[in-house]
Amino acid sequence: MEGVTFLKQYILNWRTVGAIFPSSKKLACKMVDNIDFENAKCIIEYGPGTGVFTEELIRRKYSSTKLFIIEYNYEFYNMLKEKYSKVENLYIINDSAENIEEYLKKEGIENVDYIVSGLPFASLKKEMSENILNKSKDILKVHGKFITFQYTLFKRNFINRFFNNINIDKVMINMPPAYVFICEN
Q1: Fewest beta carbons less than 10 Å away: which of 6, 17, 88, 89?
Q2: Looking at domain 23-184, does it have CATH number 3.40.50.11540?
Q3: Which residues sit opposite 149 in a β-bridge?
Q4: What is the tens place of the pLDDT at every residue in 2-15?
Q5: Are 45 and 118 in contact (CB under 8 A)?
Q6: Closest Cα partner for 116 from 161, 51, 170?
Q7: What is the pLDDT of residues 12-66, one digit of tens each?
Q8: Distance between CA 185 and CA 103 in Å, rounded?
């Protein structure tokens, strides 16, 4: 069912959905493996889609850790609300990642430890991508990490303009295979 919804949303909103299928469990694990859950006070997830990464974040996070998930697509947002509305310290937001600061301010949060992003920077408008990456850099704590994935290395130099230290891993067990970018300042 989620796969059908994902495909439909891709067809209707290809620029912001960016994939035909949900990410694999293997990619989800790789995306969160670099998070120190024991010390993380606040984590953000951009573009959770149907919640593949969200599931892994919820499974591993401490109950006191605040997790903000911000989904632009209304169909996915509704799915996420239905699945996760009872999770402690989880904030499910229907908006653009460009506006994450507003939601953090409402909760009195200035900086976050990690940002996990499923956003398709290859298809998002350049101005939107720049806004999101600038705000991400600004809200991350010192030694915080911005973790994203892309299907090609095409946007590496673009992302490198915002984060000067990027390590890349490749995940073959995904459709299509993906590159995980672990970014730090």
Answers
A1: 88
A2: no
A3: 180
A4: 544 434 444 444 44
A5: yes
A6: 51
A7: 444 444 444 567 899 999 999 999 999 999 999 999 998 999 999 999 999 999 9
A8: 23
